[in-house]
Backbone:
């Protein structure tokens, strides 16, 4: 009986004690809400050192920006945004305090460097977390920052670590520490471990070691490891540049390929090409607005939708404006320029003069990490693939379908085709519609890379014409090769010439090239040539 | 809602009609205020909001009894983002409309275009946007930030609070970024940062392919020293820049980017998720906690008829500039340019961050400097602010050519660029 009583008492007092400790957060209110960062950092340290059961909740809330102070009572609370209002709970015990407006709350200021601090604090506690992912994040947040005690703990943990990724990261953490602070044996092990690793923390540690180690053998080994790593790094950088070039090239090709049809095959200088791209991008935006819950997949629907929208507008332009102007290049140029202004202003008036926010689906964000020195961003990879897909599809339509045959026939000799029974006016409309539709599809792709606004088209029209002219009017292959060439040479030039100069150099080159070969890389026959 | 739009449309029509034909109320009964902001073209995105802000401020002033017993009348013109047209429209406002003051311009080039006209005709202009400094005109009041009210404190914050030791100065290739970066570079070198730790990069307007530059920044920031990016990248080009940073895995915690041209209005057209955690330096954020700000936001929402519209730094600058002008006119008892110019120096009016801003003798004002972190709702979370107000400096102390220049428009000196070494005034502008 006595024992039970005693037990109850102990339980009660420990509960009381825990509650008392949870009150710590309230007692730190002045420091947490202080303007001075030093005060706030001090409060964080006190929380981390305390044994308050809820301290992890507070630290995590600070990282997430959910820790607030109630203006009315100065009480520290957790507040989670819910629409326009905030659901508030008491920080010390998690009891609900109702719903508040933003103006009733004062946020506890946490900036990036504090957040980094908080993460490594949380990291030291999360090393033994049940989730492999959490352990991995914890180790990552500690690399290069852990003190000796933490490293020794990790050294013990790594032996039992079941997950391969986590144990590698742990090994890295330990090695980076040991390279400079370990015993002779640990240092030697660490040097073996980091052989072939390309992480920047490793390279920096090796660099410091090679410069400052008193042990010449160690210094030479570090230097040779460093040299090997750096040469591999250079290699990967060249690959990266190639990738950048290919992706810029595919953007150019995607934007220009519709023009390759309307300008290249039909000989129409369509200044509204950029605006057809813009319409495609806006279609993506509207589709996303229509299906807000399906952001991940709606873009797949946007591709055919944009094709239809821009294609329809293209056919409309052809039927109402261009068909009256065949063979009169200058007039076509002016008329389509007018159409482009009309389309821009329409969007400005009926949608907004502001840019609209097109969201990237999550499968198009982030990058595919091949190794610490080389990672390829998903959106660029997908655009390269998409570009090749569109290109292949168009090539098929051109060479393997009846419609393609008619298109080529009309573009090469209209009179003869008509004599053979082809309705050339209809083929013209269809061809222009196809080119415009492809421009719309390009808009979907470009909406994932840059801004979507009324001026979107303007930034691509010049580049598109350059690609088509450089590649050779009337030739799809020419467009592909020209786009890729321009993309890659731009990216090769950019690192040492700067973005502005690189572009100028390329333009000068194209001017000279066109002087020498006026019909581009792959000259072709077509109506443009006849004229 | 619909009705509201219609009345607004009618109002706009009337404003347009009065702007071009100026019929109706005779000029003696009203004091005319010129609003010179682009309502079409590329700058319409930013400037239309400022036109609306001015209409709201004038409207409120009229409700409170006008000025000197007269009603204020806004004369709105549209310079259409066309720089030479700014000069023409300014001339029209002063000569034909006889406005007492002009509130307007956004880009530096448009201001430079107005400058000779406003000086020739002895008009008054309030310029509300942060700019590169190196200018002080008798006829212009600069209510936006000079570099020492935005760029320099931002760098101080990164240096002292974030611990940055390596610097990337990235900007769009035109006058504001070039001048600002020149000042910042001189400042950093002055603070003992080795030249090898500063990387300067310029890109064309509307640059969209940031892959190589971000890769370069990433590499530059990987040598173990804390690296920060100071961005004077303009407008649209920011979106693909931040997207690329996020995609290449550069987080705000590794390499923070601080921007001087990204505000609430710009963020409303972005998908903000890749920007979260990056920084911006301004003198005002919509999220500032003060009663004046709450009132201003409420007034703005009811004027514009939408709860979703944001407020931003240049709007606050117009709020301050307009109130200063009103007080100066009341103090002078007239709208005469010279009298107002003399009266306005030293006038303090409340700003929206809970303090007071004062017009300095160099025609710049005092302001607090705030650093905000971008949130996913397009708002800023203020993480740092200067302990007091910072007075705008027309001539940077960090550029050799302007180090010895001061500006003081008060009576005996009355010079915008007085060289303290030679004791000579170099005329109105350099």
Residues:
């Amino acid at each position: 009986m006595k024992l039970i009583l005693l037990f109850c008492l102990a339980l009660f007092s420990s509960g009381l004690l825990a509650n008392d400790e949870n009150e710590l957060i309230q007692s730190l209110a002045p420091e947490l809400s202080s303007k001075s960062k030093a005060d706030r950092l001090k409060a964080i340290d006190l929380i981390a050192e305390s044994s308050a059961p809820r301290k992890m909740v507070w630290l995590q809330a600070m990282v997430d920006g959910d820790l607030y102070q109630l203006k009315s009572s100065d009480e520290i609370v957790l507040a989670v945004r819910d629409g326009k209002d905030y659901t508030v709970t008491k920080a010390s015990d998690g009891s609900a305090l109702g719903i508040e407006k933003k103006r009733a709350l004062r946020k506890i200021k946490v900036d990036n460097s504090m957040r980094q601090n908080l993460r490594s604090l949380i990291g030291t506690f999360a090393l033994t977390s049940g989730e492999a992912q959490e352990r991995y994040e914890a180790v990552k947040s500690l690399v290069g920052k852990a003190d000796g005690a933490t490293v020794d703990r990790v050294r013990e943990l790594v032996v039992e670590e079941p997950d391969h990724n986590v144990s590698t990261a742990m090994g890295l953490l330990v090695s980076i520490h040991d390279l400079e602070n370990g015993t002779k044996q640990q240092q030697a092990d660490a040097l073996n471990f980091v052989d072939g690793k390309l992480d920047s923390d490793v390279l920096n540690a090796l660099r410091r070691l090679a410069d400052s180690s008193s042990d010449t053998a160690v210094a030479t080994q570090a230097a040779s490891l460093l040299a090997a790593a750096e040469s591999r790094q250079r290699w990967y950088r060249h690959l990266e540049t190639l990738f950048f070039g290919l992706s810029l090239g595919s953007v150019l090709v995607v934007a220009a390929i519709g023009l390759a049809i309307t300008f290249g095959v039909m000989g129409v200088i369509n200044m509204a090409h950029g605006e057809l791209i813009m319409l495609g991008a806006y279609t993506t935006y509207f589709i996303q607005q229509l299906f807000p819950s399906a952001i991940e997949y709606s873009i797949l629907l946007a591709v055919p939708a944009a094709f239809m929208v821009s294609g329809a507008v293209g056919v409309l332009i052809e039927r109402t404006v261009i068909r009256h102007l065949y063979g009169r290049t200058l007039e076509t140029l002016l008329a389509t320029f007018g159409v482009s202004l009309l389309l821009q202003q329409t969007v400005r008036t009926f949608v907004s003069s502001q840019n609209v926010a097109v969201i990237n689906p999550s499968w198009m964000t982030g990058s595919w990490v091949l190794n610490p020195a080389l990672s390829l961003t998903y959106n660029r990879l997908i655009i390269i693939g998409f570009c090749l897909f569109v290109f292949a599809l168009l090539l098929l339509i051109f060479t393997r379908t009846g419609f393609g045959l008619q298109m080529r026939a009309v573009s090469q000799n209209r009179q003869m085709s008509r004599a053979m029974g082809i309705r050339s006016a209809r083929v013209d409309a269809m061809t222009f519609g196809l080119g415009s539709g492809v421009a719309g599809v390009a808009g979907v792709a470009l909406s994932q890379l840059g801004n979507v606004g009324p001026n979107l088209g303007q930034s691509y029209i010049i580049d598109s014409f350059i690609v088509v002219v450089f590649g050779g009017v009337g030739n799809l292959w020419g467009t592909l090769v020209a786009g890729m060439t321009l993309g890659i040479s731009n990216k090769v030039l950019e690192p040492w010439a700067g973005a502005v100069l690189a572009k100028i150099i390329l333009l000068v080159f194209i001017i000279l090239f066109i002087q020498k070969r006026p019909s581009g890389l792959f000259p072709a026959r077509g109506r443009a040539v006849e004229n | 809602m619909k009705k509201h739009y219609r009345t607004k449309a009618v109002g706009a029509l009337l404003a347009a009609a009065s702007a071009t034909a100026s019929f109706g109320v005779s000029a003696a009964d009203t004091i005319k205020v010129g609003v010179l902001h682009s309502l079409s073209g590329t700058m319409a995105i930013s400037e239309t909001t400022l036109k609306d802000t001015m209409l709201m401020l004038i409207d409120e002033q009229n409700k409170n009894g006008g000025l000197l017993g007269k009603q204020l009348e806004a004369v709105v013109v549209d310079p259409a983002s066309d720089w030479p047209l700014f000069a023409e429209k300014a001339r029209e406002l002063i000569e034909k409309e006889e406005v007492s003051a002009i509130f307007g311009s956004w880009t530096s080039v448009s201001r430079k275009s107005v400058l000779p006209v406003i000086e020739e005709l002895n008009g008054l202009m309030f310029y509300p946007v942060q700019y590169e400094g190196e200018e002080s005109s008798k006829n212009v009041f600069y209510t936006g930030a000079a570099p020492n009210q935005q760029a320099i404190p931002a760098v101080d914050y990164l240096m002292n609070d974030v611990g940055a030791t390596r610097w990337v100065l990235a900007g769009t290739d035109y006058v504001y970024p070039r001048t600002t970066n020149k000042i910042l570079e001189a400042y950093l070198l002055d603070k003992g940062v080795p030249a090898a730790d500063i990387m300067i990069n310029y890109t064309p307007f509307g640059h969209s392919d940031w892959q190589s530059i971000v890769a370069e920044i990433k590499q530059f920031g990987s040598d173990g020293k804390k690296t920060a990016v100071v961005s004077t990248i303009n407008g649209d080009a920011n979106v693909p820049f931040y997207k690329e940073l996020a995609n290449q895995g550069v987080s705000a915690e590794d390499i923070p980017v601080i921007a001087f041209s990204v505000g609430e209005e710009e963020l409303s057209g972005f998908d903000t998720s890749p920007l979260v955690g990056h920084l911006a330096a301004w003198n005002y954020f919509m999220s500032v906690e003060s009663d004046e700000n709450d009132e201003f936001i409420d007034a703005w929402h009811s004027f514009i008829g939408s709860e979703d519209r944001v407020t931003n730094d240049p709007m606050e600058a117009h709020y301050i500039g307009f109130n200063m002008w009103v007080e100066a006119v009341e103090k002078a008892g007239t709208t005469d340019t010279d009298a107002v110019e003399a009266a306005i120096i030293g006038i303090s009016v409340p700003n929206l961050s809970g303090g007071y801003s004062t017009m300095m003798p160099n025609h710049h004002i005092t302001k607090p400097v705030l650093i905000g972190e971008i949130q996913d709702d397009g708002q800023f979370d203020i993480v740092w602010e200067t302990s007091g107000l910072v007075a705008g400096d027309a001539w940077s102390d960090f550029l050799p050519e302007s180090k010895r220049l001061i500006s003081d428009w008060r009576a005996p000196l009355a010079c915008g660029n007085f060289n303290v070494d030679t004791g000579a005034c170099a005329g109105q502008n350099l």
Q: What stands out?
A: The two ends of chain B are 51 Å apart (CA to CA). Residues 81 and 201 of chain B are 26 Å apart (CA to CA). Chain B touches chain A through 57 residues (CB under 8 Å). Chain B has two domains: 2-145+289-365, 148-288+370-391.
